[in-house]
Structure formats: structure tokens, C-alpha cells
Amino acid sequence: MASYNLKVNGKKVSVNTDDDTPLLWVLRDELNLVGTKYGCGIGQCGACTVHIDGIAMRSCSVPASRMEDSEITTIEGLADEKLTPVQEAWKELDVPQCGYCQAGQIMTASSFLKQNPNPNNEEIRNAMHSNLCRCASYNRIEKAVALAAKKMS
């Protein structure tokens, strides 16, 4: 076990963990940020997606020990008091069914729209394809990403 200093949602925190402990478990178990979900544990489903230096990454596949110089943002830190355009679009289109994957979906969509603020439907589909939704709300997810892009422009 070692002590690591992380910056999560704009706050500096110190955690004691093993070198190979995934960031996901530090966020959930040590920092009580449970919006980031465990899905598959191998970086394939996207439920655990967070932003690391603004880029969407799977927190189950990244050791927390490597995050000391990074800015980590979880779903809890994505918005201040006002929802982001992506969150507004999700709410407006009533995207979630069970909701389990939605934090990861929103984190992926937010990062994608920062890189591509005016995407076409194919670009949206390609950007979101690696996030799995067991309820198959893919059409609503894609519509919400498109709506969020319009809200941002």
C-alpha cells in the first residue's frame, strides 16, 4: 500500500491503495463517488467512464497510482449547480431506462462533443458505439447527443 495524491472533481485528495488498484475502486470505495459504475471490469462496456484530463477513459482499466498528475472528473463533478447541455438533453429526451450505464454514456458524450462540437449522425454513432446499454436505448442516446450539440452551438 502506498499513498497517492489525486485531483478529483477539482479537489485534491489523498488515498492509500495498492499500486495496481483500478481508479474505479478508489473512486467508489475510498471517495464514495458511486456514480461511476462497475460493469465488466475489462474496459469494454463503458459504465465506468470518467474524464482524465478531459478525455473519456475507462476507470476500471487505469491504475489509480498513475493518476497523480491528472485531472479526474466523474459524473458527480461534471456539472456545477446547473446541468451541462448533455445532461439537459438526456433529461429532455428521457434517455435512461434502468439508468445503470447512463453516467458512462454522458461522460463519453461530453468528452466527444468537446472534441467534435458539430458532429453528424454517423460520427455520433461511432463515438458512442463502445458504450453498452443493456436496455438498448441507443436511438435515444444518439438523439440526445445530437440535441446536446445543438444546445452547445
UniProtKB/TrEMBL annotation:
It comes from the Bacteria. Keywords: 2Fe-2S, Iron, Iron-sulfur, Metal-binding, Oxidoreductase. SUPFAM superfamilies: 2Fe-2S ferredoxin-like (SSF54292), CO dehydrogenase ISP C-domain like (SSF47741). PANTHER family: BLR6218 PROTEIN (PTHR44379:SF2), OXIDOREDUCTASE WITH IRON-SULFUR SUBUNIT (PTHR44379). It comes from Winogradskyella pulchriflava. It holds the Pfam family Fer2. InterPro entries: 2Fe-2S-bd, 2Fe-2S-bd_dom_sf, 2Fe-2S_ferredoxin-like_sf, 2Fe-2S_ferredoxin-type, 2Fe2S_fd_BS, Beta-grasp_dom_sf, Diverse_Oxidoreductases. This is (2Fe-2S)-binding protein. The lineage of its organism: Bacteria, Pseudomonadati, Bacteroidota, Flavobacteriia, Flavobacteriales. Residues 2-78 form the 2Fe-2S ferredoxin-type domain.
